[in-house]
């Protein structure tokens, strides 16, 4: 089974060990940044950020709550539709709170821009962004994450939370899918 799954992968872009190591570094930068705050609301964007969120939050040493939002923009295709719709909202009030948005990847920037604006409007004290991956070549909307794990080239990647058609999220590495899978 496992082999069949990995057969669909053209190449491994970031292996498990590099992910763990880099995420620890991001967490220490984030700990340093928030060290004078007594609470942080960490918001993971479903579903792509789940692995990153788990790995990152294990290394955060500030009191924090873990929240999730689900927004839709991609569907089954590999291109952003430009429409960002909130499918599942926060369970909590973020007025005067420090909010850290955790995203799997920044591509065109549409998703994050819409989300950041929406959370700022609710009266958060601050809204910061950490993204595991960044594809700067694809940016349509100017947005900069406060922390980025890895800059990657313009290729469609899966694994470590990221899917193609809901599959491959469980791979422990970031890989490039063979074109034949989606063409
Ligand atoms: P944006 O709004 O920045 O165009 O899209 C961001 C979202 O699109 C990401 O959160 C992710 O769900 C999806 N996405 C963008 N690039 C990729 C990619 O290379 N692989 C996968 N699996 N999803 C991607
Ligand atoms: Mg996402
Ligand atoms: Mg997706």
UniProtKB/TrEMBL annotation:
User: Which pathway does this chain act in?
Assistant: Purine metabolism; IMP biosynthesis via salvage pathway; IMP from hypoxanthine: step 1/1; Purine metabolism; GMP biosynthesis via salvage pathway; GMP from guanine: step 1/1
As for what it does, the entry says: Purine salvage pathway enzyme that catalyzes the transfer of the ribosyl-5-phosphate group from 5-phospho-alpha-D-ribose 1-diphosphate (PRPP) to the N9 position of the 6-oxopurines hypoxanthine and guanine to form the corresponding ribonucleotides IMP (inosine 5'-monophosphate) and GMP (guanosine 5'-monophosphate), with the release of PPi.
- Enzyme Commission number(s): 2.4.2.8
Give the family from UniProt. Answer: Belongs to the purine/pyrimidine phosphoribosyltransferase family.
Report the protein name in the record: Hypoxanthine phosphoribosyltransferase
As cofactor, the record names: Mg(2+)
Could you state one GO cellular component term attached to this entry? cytosol
Q: Which gene encodes it?
A: hpt
């Amino acid at each position: 089974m496992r082999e069949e799954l990995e057969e669909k992968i053209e190449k491994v872009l970031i292996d498990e060990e590099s992910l763990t190591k880099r995420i620890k570094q991001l967490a220490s930068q984030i700990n340093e940044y928030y060290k004078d705050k007594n609470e942080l609301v960490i918001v993971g964007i479903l579903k792509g950020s789940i692995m990153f969120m788990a790995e990152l939050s294990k290394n955060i040493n500030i009191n924090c709550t873990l929240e999730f939002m689900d927004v839709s923009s991609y569907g089954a295709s590999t291109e952003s539709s430009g429409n960002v719709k909130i499918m599942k909202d926060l369970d909590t009030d973020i007025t005067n709170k420090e909010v850290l948005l955790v995203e799997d990847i920044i591509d065109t920037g549409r998703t994050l821009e819409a989300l950041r604006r929406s959370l700022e409007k609710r009266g958060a004290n601050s809204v910061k962004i950490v993204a595991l991956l960044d594809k700067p070549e694809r940016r349509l909307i100017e947005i900069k994450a406060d922390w980025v794990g890895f800059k990657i080239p313009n290729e469609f990647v899966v694994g470590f939370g990221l899917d193609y058609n809901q599959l491959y999220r469980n791979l422990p590495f970031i890989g490039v899918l063979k074109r034949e899978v989606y063409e």
